[in-house]
Amino acid sequence: MLSSDVVVVGAGMAGASVAAELSERLSVVMVETAASGEEHSTGRSAAAFLPSYGSPWVRALTRASGPLYEEMAAENGVPLLQQRPLLWLATDKPGEDAVTELTRSSPHLERITPVQAHRLCLPLRADRIRSAAVDRSAADVDVAGLHQTYFRMLRRRGATVLFNAAVRDIRRHGQGWRVTAGDHVIHCEKVVNAAGAWVDQVAARADVPPIGIQPRRRTAFVSPTRYDGDIAELPLVVDACERWYVKPEAGLMLGSPADATDVSPGRPSPDGLEIARALEAIGEATTLGLRGVRRAWAGLRNFVADREPVVGAWSGHEGFYFLAAQGGYGIQMAPALARLTADIVAEGALSRETAQYGVPPAGLRPDRLPVARASS
Question: pTM for the full model?
Fold first, then answer.
């Protein structure tokens, strides 16, 4: 039998990051159903740091994460971010309207002319560009490096990590909890539910209300290109209405239809029709000449109704915390979101540092959600 201050459920980026932050203040056990933490969303990310991408609070947490990425890179001597501009591209009127809204909501975005957009990304078809904006603060993320950085922090701080340990039962035990995970029984004061698409299932095992998680499939693929320039120097290009995107990936081009199809928790399959649609759209906007699909996969993006993250406990179910619903933005905002969550779990309030992120804890709590009103 084990005991700790906190049990964190899930060893993906969300679980590993918050467990690492908590382990500086509290004793931590992290449990994971799979044999590693990279089997689901963490290992299927587009690996990008995009301060102009996502909801207002997602963007705020992403901006706050920038210095934390640099801080961790300095400590470990390994860079975690590599600059790659993000080019928001409009090829039709809805796209133009989207670019206008993006530049209004993200003041650091630079509106550029079609000529400047073409210079930034030569494979673009100049006659197709109607408007564009560039985010020069964007970067590629070393996702594996970041994940392993958090695991090194956990080991250094004496945390316990249990793989192949599916949560079977969570029950109140005195003022705390008794968690049964695999063959292990752990007594703890607090539980952090960072189980991704499975957070509602884990909550049910603790008799805690669900948050209404909505897993959605995101398809991606890599393809060779006919472009004879240095593809490593190309920006990430995203259709301003988020109908497709394309970026360099290890000598190939990574593309996606940016789909968001409701699915059940699990390991989704890539959608061949969506890939065909993306290839056609990329072909209409660029001269990349993507030549078939070398490899395709799909990941899960997990949302709740208002598309903002969920951090905190339901009223009446104190001690059982959610860290969930990061959507497709979990990697880019992981450092700041983990630090903010750790403050809420360990201290019950934000520190001076995390308060400066500008994200109110009350706006992240489960009680804001429609499911709360429906069950009241």
Answer: 0.94
